[in-house]
Amino acid sequence: MSAPLNLISGRNLISGHTCICACCNNLRRLLSLRRRLLVARAEEQREGSSAAAAADEEPIAAEQLLRRKKGKAGAGFKPSPASAKEGPTVISPVRDQVYGGGPLTAEQQAENSVVGLLAALFFVILAEGIYVAASGFMPQALDQFAQDVVLPAFTPTLGLFLAISTAYGLWKTRAGPDGQQ
């Protein structure tokens, strides 16, 4: 983030130096044109002279300056034709399995099923916990349902989640980083 500038002089308000970047120079030019336009309009109102013609041309000059700079903004960042080409085509069953292009192995399907089951159990546990916590603020019938059904099911659900996640962690740890047993 750049330091704040005095828009009239382009001077950095923190360090005191004058910024000479293209953006600040353009801003100073536009502010100068704006000041001249305001002065010309004020003189026109006072004198009733023909300063209107010069004042009308100044906004056009400012717009031309902006258009000219817009065209130059991205000129240095056009991709070269070589970088626009696609890379080499790789045909590899292992790459397809990793990036999702090929069919899943039985082990990958089992892993996806276990992770999906753990996600479902997580959301069930979260819902049960919120329901039990909020049951004190609910009507008597819903509070009784929480005490009779949801609360006794909470601990076994949590135990099942713990057992499955532990088994999954052991399975992935024994498989090692290469996926070999």
Feature tags:
mainly alpha; 181 residues
3D architecture notes:
The chain crosses the membrane at residues 114-137, 149-171. InterPro entries: LPA2-like. The chain has 6 helices and no strands. The protein is 69% helix and 0% strand. It has helices at residues 22-47, 52-73, 81-84, 93-99, 106-134, 140-175. By secondary structure, it is mainly α. The chain has 2 domains: 1-74, no CATH class; 93-175. The protein starts with 21 loop residues before the first helix and ends in a 6-residue tail after the last helix.
Alpha-carbon Rg, integer: 35 Å
Helix content: 55-70%
Q: What is the global morphology?
A: elongated
Order of helices and strands: HHHHHH
Give a short synopsis of this structure.
With 181 residues, this protein is mainly alpha-helical. It contains six helices and no strands. Helix 1 packs antiparallel against helix 2.
Please write out the topology:
Layout: H1 22-47, H2 52-73, H3 81-84, H4 93-99, H5 106-134, H6 140-175
Helix pairs in contact: 1-2, 5-6
